[in-house]
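Quarterly update from the structural biology core.
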Amino acid sequence: MRPRFIIIIAALLAAAMPSLPAAAADPAPAKPRGTAPAQDAAKVDDAQKYQHCIWLARQKPEDGWEESLSWGSLGGGEPARQCGAIALVGLKQYAEAATRLEDLARSSHSSPMLRAGMLAQAGQAWLLAGKPERAYAAQTTALQLVPGAPDLLVDRAESLAEAKNYRDAVTDLDQALTVGPDRVDALTFRATAKRYLDDLKGAGEDVAKALSIDPQNPDAWLESGIIKRLNGNAAQARQDWLKVLQIAPKSPAADAARRNIEILDVKAP
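Predicted structure, tokenized:
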């Protein structure tokens, strides 16, 4: 199972700056309405700086890092520090990024939702650093701030799976699917965890439901092929993996599908 680094920029921005005027989200020039209060104008400016810095951190992490330092020196505060940590993830300095995000969450006076978002990002960075136990700790703290949050439960399930604790991973995924029963990522992930627990019947049911919801999901087709191969149906497994190559030929799922097809070819008489 591979870690997913998910940054929900809109949610974080809304939590960080709940009183932004509606015009801040509208890219079109606003019609003149007289002189806007200086405080509102400053909030709009901060929101734009945050969006720009986050975009750089994700797309051009070196530039994002420099932007975060510059903004921080001008009083950018917590948003600038968070942007810098995300840039470090892009620079593959995962442990440093995770540590900074945890420190920021501890010292922050922001809402529980925003602090939980920082810890969720820290957890993903710890996973990328190969430290599932640290990821689990960060995600558990985040869930104490936002109990039952399905995204956090899915993330923590991934940390548990990385530590080979598949049974507890299934428990977290069960809870996440209670909130959102049609989540394809959670269904596919639970299928994988069940497969590791030798519950091929349950795994097959989960991945079949995932594909009924999203027939174009490459991860679900990859998992479906693995389950079919384990059930002794190599021909159908191959078809599922070829489907992955058709849907998303440059994806990590496609790389795994190619390896599995190669193994089938080697074993073929």
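The two ends are 30 Å apart (CA to CA).
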